[in-house]
Amino acid sequence: MAWDEWEQIKAEVTARHDSHMQLNGTGGAVGTADLKTNAPGKRGAIKALVERIRPGLDKAGVHADETTDTTEREFKGWATGAGLKDAHNEWALQVKSLKARLAQDQTDLSETKRDFQYVDHDVKSSLTRIDTPAPDPRRNA
């Protein structure tokens, strides 16, 4: 195969392919941005975490602690009291774990925009570092 013929085949293949990158199965239309974030949705989720969910969890946890403490005292010395105390200790661990998870979710939602921007800048800088080789003068000789 002659060099000119190879160059022609490469040019035809390049012309047939769109220059946009698209992942298989994403369903994105060619030429549109596939990866998006929902800033208003994130703001709404953060607001719900700050104003309703986390304070509601604190309130529910305290209420459960108070009523369970009272009930534990009523059943002190009984097997039911010991079982209730064990269940209450497990409840406290679960509430603590859920609080930590919700705090982490709030932090993650807050940092998503920044993280996407870092990825965009990293990809752009990686692409600009790619050096397209100069044509080989021997090819045209």
UniProtKB/TrEMBL annotation:
The organism named in the record is: Streptomyces roseicoloratus
What protein does this entry describe?
Uncharacterized protein
Q: Where is this region: Disordered?
A: 122-141
